[in-house]
Amino acid sequence: MKNRIFYVTLLLILLGCQHEQLNEIPNEKASNEFFVSESEAINVSLARPTAAMTRFYTHDKEIESCYAYCSEESATTQFYAINYKGGGFVIVSADKRTIPILASSDEDCFVLEEEYLMPEGLWGWMKNISCVIDSLRTNNLTQDELVKSMWKSFVDISTRSDDGDDYDEDGPDDEVVTPVCQGPNYGFRETDAIVGPLLNTKWDQVNGYNSCIPKTCGMTNAPAGCVAVSLAQIMKYYKSPSTYNWNSMPDALPTDATSLFLLEIGKNIKINYDCDGSSASNDNALSALKNKYGYITAKLADYNYDKVRNEVLNAKRPVILSGGSKGFLGVYKNGHSWICDGVEVMGSYRCVYDEELKEYYTLRIAEYLYLHMNWGWGGRCDGWYSFSDFHPTGNEHSYNYKTKMITSLIPTL
């Protein structure tokens, strides 16, 4: 069987997804055969890890909380945000027609809150995932065989004996899976490569990072702007231009120097400061990078997943991403900017029983990818997210409208 590249499931057709609400786990269970219950999601989050996957989840983790993200229209959970005691989270799909793990982090926690309290890019990701799953259910689509195998690759309680041996329902009765299927190639594991996260910074738009912004909003100042934070974190990563005192701008502590730097960037990209959110255009951001800060090779283009993958994985350069939502008459609104600073290529394996040889062997059935996102909100919810495509067809309300990328960020000063 040839390996197939499986591009997560954001390529599916999206239909009607406009309003979401945030709820704790509902009591009712969807009748759909592909629905994932709370207990099933927790089992996935605590599934036996392989040696290469300890950053995702481990068997000795304890659950701190489990919340559901629900569609207001269907009132049926789209995914679960599961937080671990001591930090870290996993987002598990509530539908078995998508990959099981949608996102993860080994630090921080994932708290479902209203839109204005969350990173704009993250909110857009949540809306798109919600739309994907709603579309699967509305159109009653079938389960892809690769996705089915991915879910199967998690160790299920019903196929594990008390002494920890694995059994395969496709093999002979009571046949214990051989050690080859208990090794690191069983289930999810790292495959080709992993790069990142490249950035160490956890800069924010508020919480002291906006102390020098001239526009006041009651007892505080307007946000520094997500575009400014994205550019600033890129320059801090390269410590370029070299004329700045980068030591005066710590990775995770606001200082006057950092706030002044964000203000300077804001002026150069012509930010419109507003209490509800400060905005700037991608064109102005590109111009400032090239003409003010020496990133003369920087390029602005429509989002292309392969380009982002190669830029981060091969060139080991972070990429600035941006997107928004489509308003009335196609007007671009709710724009947001963040940084992709990591790529991980993952593989899914399963045990297969050979009738002729009378033995098990591991079969690599799929490859898929996660991107590490620095949302520019003080490190909040930074993590690895399934992000294969930003342009699913058929949904005029997609949050990721006119998605752009700034690549080839190579310093010269």
UniProtKB/TrEMBL annotation:
Q: Which InterPro entries match?
A: Papain-like_cys_pep_sf, Peptidase_C10, Spi_Prtas-inh, Streptopain_sf
State the organism of origin.
Bacteroides oleiciplenus
Q: Does the entry feature the keyword Transmembrane helix, yes or no?
A: no
The biological processes this protein is annotated with in GO are:
proteolysis
Stated family: Belongs to the peptidase C10 family.
User: What's the domain of life for this entry?
Assistant: Bacteria
Gene Ontology molecular function:
cysteine-type peptidase activity
- Protein name per Swiss-Prot or TrEMBL: Spi protease inhibitor domain-containing protein
> Which Pfam families does the record match to this protein?
Inhibitor_I69, Peptidase_C10
